[in-house]
């Protein structure tokens, strides 16, 4: 989409859908080549600039289970730098008395980003007592 519609997408968005629960195969992120990572950051900078943080909001439907690449925690941490409604799940879990080890595959996929602000995540919100959904209000 970026390559086809770069001219129209080159500005802050009111809404950004993160592909397939934040997976590596739908929202490109974490490429090993520095050039690709630079391009990916440029795309995020264009459509969800860090300076937009005061207005931008996000919720991600996530569940680590059958597919190890869902979600990409480093991608969610990067988006967390760019949106206003974030949680630092390391702090939230500590306050709730929930061990990090309860998070599926924590050591392999979550540990590096768990103490960074992230958009609201359905999987972690459920563990904190949510009913399995998160409301999001977008200001006009």
Structure description:
The protein has helices at 2-9, 34-47, 73-80, 89-96, 106-110, 122-127, and strands spanning 59-60, 86-87, 118-121. It is mostly helical and 140 residues long. Helices cover 35% and strands 6% of the residues. Strands 1-3-2 form a 3-stranded mixed beta sheet. It has one domain.
Q: What is the terminal-to-terminal distance?
A: 25 Å
Order of helices and strands: HHEHEHHEH
Main beta-sheet strand count, sense and barrel state? 3 strands, mixed
- Structure class: mainly alpha
Low-pLDDT residue spans: none
If helices are DSSP runs of H or I spanning 4 or more residues, what is the number of helices? 6
What is the beta-strand fraction? 5-15%
Q: Rg to the nearest angstrom? A: 15 Å
The averaged pLDDT comes out at 76
Q: Compute the number of structural domains.
A: 1
Question: Percent helix among the residues?
Answer: 25-40%
Instruction: Tell me the total number of β-strands.
Output: 3
* Biggest sheet: strand arrangement: 1-3-2
Dominant shape: globular
Quick overview:
This protein is mainly alpha-helical. The protein has helices at residues 2-9, 34-47, 73-80, 89-96, 106-110, 122-127; strands spanning 59-60, 86-87, 118-121.
């Amino acid at each position: 989409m970026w390559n086809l519609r770069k001219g129209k997408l080159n500005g802050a968005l009111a809404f950004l859908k993160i592909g397939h629960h934040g997976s590596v195969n739908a929202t490109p992120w974490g490429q090993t080549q520095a050039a690709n990572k630079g391009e990916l950051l440029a795309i995020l900078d264009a459509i969800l600039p860090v300076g937009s943080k005061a207005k931008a909001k996000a919720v991600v439907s996530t569940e680590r289970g059958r597919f190890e690449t869902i979600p990409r925690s480093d991608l969610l941490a990067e988006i967390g730098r760019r949106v206003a409604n974030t949680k630092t799940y390391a702090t939230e879990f500590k306050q709730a008395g929930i061990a990090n080890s309860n998070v599926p595959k924590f050591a392999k996929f979550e540990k590096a980003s768990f103490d960074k602000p992230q958009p609201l995540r359905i999987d972690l919100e459920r563990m904190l007592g949510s009913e399995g959904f998160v409301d999001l209000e977008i200001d006009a």
